[in-house]
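Consider the following assembly input.
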Amino acid sequence: MPNIGEDGVVLRAAGLAKTYDSRVPFGRSVEVLTGADMRLGPGEVVGIVGENGSGKSTLLQILVGALDPDGGSVDVAGRVGWCPQESRLYERLTVAETFDLFGEAYGLSEDAVESARDDLAARLDFERFLDYQVRHLSGGNRQKVNLAVALLHDPDVLLLDEPYTGFDWETYLAFWDLTEDLVEEGVAVAVISHLVNERERFDRIYELRDGRLHEQEVPS
Amino acid sequence: MSRLGTATAAHVRSFAREPVNLGFLFVLPPVVVEVYGRAMATFPEFPFATAGAGTLGRVAGTLFSTAFVAGLLGLFQVISARRGDERLVLCGLGRTTLLASRLAALVAATLAVAAVSLVVLSLSTAVSAPGVAYAALVGAGLLYGLLGVVVGAVLPRELEGSLVLVFLADADSALSTGIFATDAPLVEFFPLHYPHALFTDAVTTGTVRGGDAAATAAYVLAALAAAFVAYRARGVSG
């Protein structure tokens, strides 16, 4: 069971603001976030949608701590798993070596890494690629590894940026099966995508528009 | 294995699996040493020099190839893996541990390139004090490897960073040979000045001047401090 804040929320963002200033004189500044608020409870699946360039990836990078906001705050209770849009892996390490390295960063024991790695590889069907270097993987398989690295340490909050890009239909379904199991265990999941096809899979959906998050109706 | 050990092993594996790195390591030193040697062999003998012009050319080429290759490897250590490093830090690997692992991998690469360069030189030139010569090359390599880290942290683009290193190492190598008639005291402050003096003496006369060794060590420590500050100041998302 994840650590839960006093108000039953595992992630809360309040008043997030971010502007990208030009590095050259007289260049244009781009205001991306102007006061974005969101919350995420345990066992919730939340979608965050928005047009290209609306600031979805900026928002997610702020939520995981990869980017400092100009204003606002983020509070997280528990371990965070982050699946970035670009895989951010080491091209010349094998998949197995990648898990060893990130497992060490998470502070996991060798046995725990091996167990979680084998479980995720079986679940997402990339067992036969464990000895492949990352640069030799197809886009879909690379994305599976990218997702698995985010899940390796059994996170309480899972933040996914375009997680199923490159997945075939079988893997897409396997992804949602896995997500449903995680949600049953109480993991909070936020999925960022420019397209949300199956809205019924989400408990809530936010649309990022004009720098703010607007909650949308979800069909029951 | 410790966190530092696992991260260092991963960086060394990544380095060894990159064909460009292996090209730099095994192809550049022989080419540069030979080109410098042949080019300078056409010069008249220098009355103030302790060896012939061709030998001095090979000595300069050995030092340049070691410093330049180590500098590039330091630069690539910081730039190429930047996105992966950011994710690793967010996953919990300390930034200081990450930097230490990058520097440990850089030391391993520098030991290798210095060894290759010295072997190449010794095929054509008698080296009077090989141990001291190797130490001088390692000092020059570490110095430029750390400068590569600084350049990569400040200017995180491979092409631009490489050009800065080419210019710096080229000018530094040429001026540190001492064959140009210049009384400018600024030359003594260039990074390769003391390693070059140390290396030349080790190859030609087998002597060691304590002042050159101490100055080389001091430059390496100063570059280490600069690399630490620049890398830490870069921030997670840079």
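The CA atoms of residues 77 and 102 of chain B lie 7 Å apart. Ask yourself how this observation constrains the way the partners meet.
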